[in-house]
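Dear colleagues,

I hope this message finds you well. In preparation for our joint manuscript, I am sending the (African queen) hypothetical protein (Danaus chrysippus) sequence together with its predicted structure, so that both groups work from identical material. I would be grateful if you could confirm receipt.
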Amino acid sequence: MADAKEILSNFLFTVLDSRGYKTRDVNIQEITTGGANYTSVLFSIHVKTLNKELKLFAKVAIMSKEMRIVANAEKLFITEEFVYNQLIPLYNNLQKDLDEEHKFIFPEFYGFNNVYGKETVILENLVESGYKSYSRFKSMDWDHGRVSVEALARFHALSFALKKSDPEGFQKIAEDRKYTFDKDAFDQTTIDQFKDMVEKALSVLKEEEYRDKIRKFLFNTNLLEKYNKPLSTPVLAHGDYRLSNVLFKEKGHGLSAVIVDYQTVHTGCPVGDLFYIIFMGSDEEFRRLYYDKLINHYYTSLEEALKRLAVDPVEVYPRESFESDMKELLPYVMLTAVTALPMVVVDYESAPKWDSDEADFSTLIVEPGLLYKQRFRGIVDDLVRWGVI
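The corresponding structure tokens are as follows:
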């Protein structure tokens, strides 16, 4: 596998040359993620020129050939390139007349290398501007949850606004970003490995009755295909909206948030993103105190964002449709609790290595740690209490 730093250096110099930064001093440092990132190596970059200093961030793909197939990596990288090169300019044009405090914030984009095995994206380094990540081992608090769903609502509102301003253009994008599920890719070995993943999750439960019900639901062959499709109203969903993909900055007495990592943007349901961040980023106690409040805050924020973009919420996504989507999608929280949550809360020592030549689907199967057991049991308890299980 080629050296990630060398790949970055070669592409970085091309980007700097294209922007006219011919005379410069460049310092590149690898960033340790502590198991929070699997597909890429991350770097911070300081560039000093004659009259300007650039503080940049980059990520370079490191997946093995087998994991590229498992993760459908080509689609991930194509999607990310599309977002930065095409979607963001469209969205920024839609919100150009908004006050700065009401805009959805995108990090400044510098370049994308789409060469196979060398996929690299270079952005502004938001950490250097005071933004910080939130510990993936901590349940969200109200303030971080509040600003996260506000940012999500603004992101979804731009999708509705694009559909209103350019119906044909939106339809083409929605068709291109449609989730596709290749059943043929799931051979018997992969199916057996998925069952192993499910059983490891279920092993933390004491109630056999719940295990049987969850097995029956999760072994539905159409589960993944159903889960990733839009319900009442399609939007361009983020697809991996967890706290690790949000950066926060103190602003006065409050917080501001910037969403990052757009590899999984797809045509989906707004509620999918909302459920993902709530259940992947909170514990049972938080949801007991704030679940209903956070759900309501998302929808209120969406209404406000839509109105600022001259879109009528009642016409595009009435409350009745929102609540119907929540009811239909809530059982699928169990799917993400089994497949995604283990990697969201995995400790550094147990984090899967996607750059290994021996990596395959089984690499996604993580031994349940103490935090996962607590979180998973809490999700099951919630779904039982709400009559879902």
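For the figure legend, we might mention the following. Residues 284-308 form the longest helix (25 residues). The chain has a mean pLDDT of 90.

With kind regards,
E.M.
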